[in-house]
TrEMBL record:
GO terms for molecular function: oxidoreductase activity. It comes from the Bacteria. Gene3D superfamilies: Ribonucleotide Reductase, subunit A. This is p-aminobenzoate N-oxygenase AurF. It comes from Pseudomonas prosekii.
Length: 323
């Protein structure tokens, strides 16, 4: 295990979640995250959404617009259930496993006690996020009779494949990097989601989740900075290549699931092929990543990651930054 010369570079207040016991929003909130009664829900859906339409540009397709608001509500409900199911798995299978690498000294870096303590606190928060994400998903799935719910969303499968390919001696580092990218991306996603007017219960849960994740994002950015300064050159090179792959993975489309979602709304094959064609391909993935991974790229910049010309070139070639 290496020494930790980077520890002196961080203020003593870093690596903590502050007044965690009183400020962890989802865990301490008095909100029930229950959907409104059927009459109230019907009224809300006149001007609220299940999921922000701006996040789903395919809703502007002429065939979907012609189908009317009931189809739009069904498609946004489908997407919200998928997003919440994915979030439940992500918190358990990815984020909390990444936290374990910090807490249990698996990274080959001398981890400060404050960093470990905050990691244990974050681990607890993520369990609550999974619990209530699942609770809201089940309510909406029951309401709409949504039964075709993937056991393993494509993104989780792709991330697990990446982790399985990592050499045993570097698996913990790969897992930590996946957690870092995930937590720095999701805070931005939730912020954008909460700017829309959503169905009550859903809005409450996402806003409370956002409050927690904003702090978790800062924590992971700080821990990445610390770990990056302590990594030897060979592991830095490995990490840089993984980071490109991981960031792009987070912006791929689950085209198989989306096709099934569109079919559930009885859209025709021509419409579905047209929609999917505009969302897939590496250029589309890179464009979404540049737009959505701003907090991740900022954290890399702050850590001095892009001070290395090879890293700048690597990310520029992937379309993630300008050279």
């Amino acid at each position: 295990m290496t020494t930790n010369p980077a520890a002196a570079e961080f203020p003593v207040g870093h690596f903590t979640l502050g007044d965690w016991n009183n400020r962890a929003s989802v865990r301490t909130s008095g909100n029930t995250y229950l959907l409104p009664s059927p009459p109230e829900l019907e009224r809300q859906l006149l001007h609220r959404h299940w999921f922000p339409p701006g996040f789903l540009p395919y809703l502007d397709h002429p065939s979907i617009q012609a189908a009317g608001p009931a189809v739009v509500h069904r498609l946004t409900a489908n997407h919200l259930v998928y997003f919440l199911d994915y979030t439940t798995l992500l918190e358990h299978r990815i984020v909390n496993r990444a936290v374990e690498t910090i807490v249990h000294d698996e990274l080959g870096v001398a981890i400060p006690l404050r960093m470990k303590t905050a990691g244990l606190q974050l681990y607890t928060d993520e369990g609550f996020h999974a619990l209530f994400s699942n609770s809201v998903a089940e309510q909406i799935a029951d309401l709409y009779g949504i039964t075709s719910r993937p056991l393993m969303p494509r993104r989780i499968t792709r991330l697990n494949d990446l982790l399985a390919r990592a050499p045993n001696e570097h698996k913990a580092l790969a897992l930590f990097l996946v957690g870092f990218v995930s937590e720095t991306i999701i805070a931005r996603e939730l912020l954008d989601l909460c700017r829309d007017l959503l169905v009550s219960g859903v809005q409450e849960m996402l806003r409370d989740h956002l409050t927690d994740e904003a702090r978790h994002s800062r924590y992971f950015a700080q821990v990445f900075h610390y770990v990056w300064l302590n990594l030897p050159g060979t592991r830095r090179t490995l990490a840089a290549h993984w980071l490109v792959e991981i960031i792009l993975l987070f912006f791929e489309i689950d085209d198989r699931w989306l096709r099934e979602s569109l079919l559930s709304a009885e859209l025709d094959a021509v419409c579905i092929t047209d929609i999917l064609g505009g969302l897939t391909g590496m250029n589309a993935v890179a464009a979404r990543a540049r737009s959505g991974a701003g907090a991740t790229l900022k954290a890399l910049h702050t850590a001095g990651f892009f001070d290395l010309p090879g890293n700048r070139q690597l990310f520029a070639q992937a379309g993630l930054i300008d050279e």
